[in-house]
Amino acid sequence: MRAKLAAFCVSILASAGVCAAQTPAGTPNPNGQVDYSKVYCSGFVSDPKVPDDIRVISGEQSNYKIIFSRGDYVYVNRGAQQGVKLGDVYSIVRPDRDPANEWFYGQAKETKKMGVLYRDLGQIRIVSLQPETSVAEILFSCDYMQRGDVARPFVERPAPPYKDASKFDIFAPANGKPVGRVLSAYDWHQALGAGNTAYVNIGASKGVKIGDYVRLFRYQTSKDDISAKAGEPDMQYKVLGFGSAPKRYAGKDLPREVLGEGIVLNVTKDAATILVTYGREETYAGDLAELE
Fold first, then answer.
1. Domains in the chain, start-ordered, CATH in brackets?
2. Which of 171, 201, 223, 250 could form a disulfide with 180 if both were Cys (CB 3.0 to 4.6 A apart)?
3. Tens-place pLDDT, residues 160-214
4. Residues 100-132: tens digit of each pLDDT
């Protein structure tokens, strides 16, 4: 019993270490193209939901392993009789949702309208076939895999080129192009800077394409800002005990605050995955994204 418990603990620590080493992180290189891990590990939003008929059902050492990572062998619920072939590669994804409360008014409702958010977990390759099941090796890990994760035939994603951030205009006026809202982010980060990934509710239906850039910005305090809950809803023109403007200004009456920009990595009908490439200020859930 003690030996099994020790092996169980070692498995968790080893797998977690591998996952951490491959999780997307860091500031993007301003030259060249977006790197592989950013392209394939940033997640995406889909409407309708991704078909989930092909699943990871188990793996080697399943008597104590609860998660699987790069180099492990997992079992898939499809085999030779369902047309699976040796060498087939699948992407592994998992539906995901923010376990925290709303960060701005209406966030949950707007996120649901956008579609189902999926976490990218990595890729597997079929190495052995049975009639109804198959064995696959995990080739690449973004995060740990577990029983029930969804497998879809691998599809290559383009790696768009970066542009020169030195020409970024912090006072850029509104350009009249589609504007969406930052509704969520990879790993549920709520303060985003260069290297972080966000999900916005403008997509292909508004003309957004992979490789496009969006400008991140905000207007000063408005009714859906989280600061309004804290008891200071009108800080854009007054602060109790610290002065006020001669008249009331709504958030959109004042110049907007340009926060940074990001490149589009993935697009579906009403959503886009954005990699923040430059940030002069932190971007938060609820901030806005304008197609450049």
1. 35-153 (2.40.33), 165-291 (no CATH)
2. 201
3. 999 988 889 999 999 999 999 999 999 888 889 999 999 999 999 999 999 999 9
4. 767 788 888 898 899 999 999 999 999 999 999
Residue 4: CB atoms within 10 A of its CB come to 10
Using pLDDT thresholds of 50, 70 and 90, give the confidence band for residue 155: very high
Please state, in angstroms and rounded to a whole number, the distance separating the CA atoms of residues 272 and 187. Answer: 16
What region does 11 belong to: left with phi over 0, alpha with psi -120 to 50, or beta?
alpha
Indicate if the alpha-carbon torsion angle 189, 116, 38, 59 is positive or negative. positive
Q: Measuring CA to CA, how many Å separate 44 from each of 39, 52, 96, 186, 279?
A: 10, 15, 10, 9, 21
CA nearest neighbour of 135 among 87, 180, 207, 203: 87
